[in-house]
Specification:
The protein is an alpha+beta fold. It has helices spanning 101-108, 125-129, 142-160, 165-193, 199-211, 218-225, 229-240, 244-262, 267-273, 279-290, 294-311; strands spanning 24-30, 36-39, 48-56, 58-63, 67-71, 74-78, 83-88, 93-100, 133-135.
Length: 316
C-alpha cells in the first residue's frame, strides 16, 4: 500500500498549501459579562481539532457523547469530530484554539518536522492528538506558564500571518501536545493497565495509532515492537480473533469513515490525508471492505444526519 501523499514529498517547511489563517483560529475570552458559546459541529468546522486553555472560571464542552465540566486551571484537547459546543461561563478567562486536523498531522505526525525526522522527539504526539484529554496544570506552575505562552504565541502568529507562520504554529502545537502527554501520563498508564490482551497486543495498538496512515505492513509493526511476525500474529489473534492485517485495515477504515462523515474535504483530499497516493485505489480499498464507494457512503450518512436534525428541529 502507498506510503504518503505526493503533495507532502519534498515540500519546503515554508511551502504552505493553505495560509495558516485558513487552517487555524484562536479566540481569546477575557472575563465576559455573560456566558459565551461556540458551535463546533457545523459543516465548516468538521475538519477541526480543538484545544481549550481555561485560566479562570468554569466552562462546559458538549461532546458527541457526554459533557466535560471544566474548572480552571484546565487544558482540554478535543480531536477531530468529537466536539459539539463550547460554553464559557461569565467571568471566565482563557483561549479556544481550532486547528485543521491536516495541520496537526503535518506537524505532529511521524514526519512532522522539516527533513522528515519525527515530530516531538519520538513522543506519541499524533496518538495524543487523536484522543480526548482533560488535564489539570497546577496553578502558577511552569507547565501552565508554558501553555499560556504557546497559546499567546499562536494567537500572535495568526494575527501577523508572516513568513513561516505555519511552522511556528506547528512548533507550538507540539509544545501543547507535549504538555498534554506530560499532564496525562499517569492517566494513560492506568488506562493501558486495563486494556484487554497481552502486553504485545497493547503495544501493537499504540504503535498502530502512530503509523496506520503510513500503511505499514505486519513485518514493519513486528520490527518496531522487537518481536517476530509469528509472535505478533498470535498475540493479535488471541486478543481479537483476527489477523494483524485485518486489524490494521480496520483502523484505516475507521478513520476514513469518520473523515467522510465529519470533514468537508473531498474524497481525494481524504485519501491523501490517509496516506494513499492514488484516490482511485483508496476508493477500491474502501468499497472492498465497506460494500460502497466513499462518495456513496458519505451521501448516505449525510442524509441520515439530516433526518436526525429534522427530528429535533422543534427543540428549543
Amino acid at each position: 500500500m502507498p506510503v504518503s501523499s505526493p503533495a507532502r514529498l519534498g515540500e519546503s517547511p515554508f511551502d504552505d498549501l493553505l495560509p495558516v489563517t485558513a487552517q487555524a483560529m484562536m479566540d481569546r475570552f477575557d472575563h465576559p459579562l455573560s456566558s459565551q458559546s461556540w458551535v463546533m459541529n457545523d459543516p465548516g468546522r468538521r475538519d477541526r481539532c480543538y484545544a481549550v486553555l481555561l485560566l479562570s472560571g468554569r466552562a462546559q464542552i458538549a461532546l458527541r457523547q457526554g459533557v466535560i465540566e471544566c474548572k480552571a486551571p484546565a487544558l482540554v484537547w478535543l480531536p477531530l469530530g468529537e466536539t459539539q459546543r463550547f460554553t464559557v461561563n461569565a467571568g471566565g478567562e482563557g483561549y479556544l484554539l481550532s486547528v485543521a486536523d491536516d495541520l496537526v498531522a503535518r506537524h505532529c505526525g511521524d514526519g512532522g518536522m522539516a527533513g522528515g525526522s519525527p515530530a516531538g522527539g519520538g513522543l506519541p504526539l499524533r496518538l495524543a492528538a487523536d484522543t480526548v484529554h482533560n488535564v489539570i496544570p497546577a496553578e502558577n506552575s511552569e507547565n501552565l506558564s508554558h501553555l499560556r505562552r504557546s497559546f499567546e504565541a499562536i494567537r500572535a502568529e495568526l494575527m501577523q500571518n508572516a513568513l513561516g507562520a505555519s511552522l511556528v504554529v506547528g512548533a507550538h502545537l507540539q509544545i501543547i501536545l507535549t504538555m498534554v502527554l506530560r499532564l496525562a501520563e499517569s492517566v494513560m498508564e492506568q488506562r493501558d493497565k486495563h486494556r484487554p490482551g497481552s502486553i504485545t497486543f497493547q503495544r501493537f495498538l499504540q504503535v498502530l495509532e502512530l503509523h496506520f496512515r503510513e500503511h505499514w505492513n505486519v513485518a514493519d509493526y513486528a520490527t518496531a515492537l522487537g518481536v517476530s511476525e509469528r509472535r505478533l500474529g498470535s498475540a493479535v489473534l488471541r486478543a481479537t480473533g483476527k489477523p494483524p492485517l485485518t486489524v490494521i485495515h480496520e483502523r484505516v477504515l475507521r478513520e476514513a469513515c469518520m473523515r467522510l462523515e465529519q470533514s468537508p474535504l473531498g474524497v481525494a483530499q481524504i485519501a491523501y490525508g490517509l496516506g494513499f497516493r492514488d484516490p482511485a485505489y483508496f476508493s477500491r480499498f474502501f468499497k472492498r471492505y465497506m460494500g460502497e464507494a466513499p462518495g456513496g457512503y458519505r451521501r448516505l450518512r449525510r442524509a441520515a444526519e439530516r433526518v436526525r436534525d429534522d427530528t429535533f428541529a422543534a427543540w428549543p
